Amino acid sequence: MQTIMPDIADTAEALQTGTLNWVGMGDIELPLLFASKGLNDITVTAKADAFVNLQNEQAKGIHMSRLFLALDTLSCEQTLTPKTLKQVLDSFVSSHQGLSNAAKVVLTFELPLRRTSLLSQKQGWKSYPVTITGTLQDDQFQLELAVDVTYSSTCPCSAALARQLIQQAFSEQFSQHSLTFDEVHQWLGSTEGIVATPHSQRSIANIKVKLAPDSQEFDILAVINSVEHELKTPVQAAVKREDEQEFARLNGQNLMFCEDAARKLKALFEASHYLDYYIKINHYESLHAHDAVAYAVKGLPHGYQV
Question: N or C: which end of the chain has fewer CB within 10 A?
Fold first, then answer.
């Protein structure tokens, strides 16, 4: 004879009545097979936050194991796509009838991509932090894709000051001389010819986009490629000397404050098909002990805010 075990979530009275926005679990370890346009399916190790709302004011609590098991099915039997993510959320709500009418999943992971160097065509791995958030409320599915893109930013002010010092050094050394082309050319290639260099720093663009609810795939590669192409100075993986020199050239030709980077990406996403966008630019200053930061959003009444 099977013993019937008590289910406190169903039978016990709540110590304090009231609704709750979200109840669930955080940081669930979850291997996933991730599918995205332009990429072969990739196995990633994700952390998942899983929630439902608690709509029933009298209920003691939710059934957390049901959330866990739905995610486990996604992990073991399915590939992560917009469709399967919505199925998980449907399962959350249907398994909590009478308790909840909304569900939410947040998945975070590092996406490893093979990236080709600037000139030598060598390849190496780069990891991009990705967050996928799905919500379902009153049968309305919302889908968000977020990614961090790392790049280099060289300060325009610092570059101007460095050029001035180079001019001054040239004047001090050659003001009394009539120079030939070869002499100028040789000096420019010497240590004395470059007496100052502008400061640059590793920088990160935090990007969030709202996808259409009927999206068939996560086109994460398009987001990453478009941001890197717009900013021109993505951090590299494998490099030879020719790649390093080309990287230096690109930095010199694409000087930018955080405002410049934010405006470039704002224009990019204004022309995109995404329902909404959020941009945070972080320049991790090498000159200052603080960071330079800029934000941009589409500005929808109920969209992303800063």
Answer: N
Contacts of range 25-28, beta carbons closer than 8 Å, 24 or more positions apart: 25/49, 25/50, 25/51, 25/64, 25/67, 25/68, 28/68, 28/71
The reply to whether 42 and 170 lie within a common domain is no
Predicted TM-score of the model (pTM): 0.91
- Both tokens of 123, joined, read 């390849």
Give 301: exposed, middle or buried? Use CB within 10 Å, 0-12, 13-18, 19+: exposed
pLDDT digits (tens, 9 = 90+) for 92-108: 999 999 999 999 999 99
Q: In the 8-state DSSP scheme, what is residue 96?
A: T
Give the range of the structural domain holding residue 176, as residue numbers without chain letter.
Answer: 156-189
User: Per the domain annotation, does 194 fall within a domain?
Assistant: no
Quick: pLDDT tens for 99-141: 999 999 999 999 999 999 999 999 999 999 999 999 999 889 9
Contact 52, 93 (CB under 8 A): yes
Could you tell me if residue 170 is inside a domain? yes
Q: Which two tokens stand for residue 5?
A: 């075990």
CA torsion angle 296 301 302 303 (round to 10): -20
| Residues 136 and 165 placed together within one structural domain of the fold | no
Q: For residues 102 and 104, what is the distance between their CA atoms, to the nearest angstrom?
A: 7
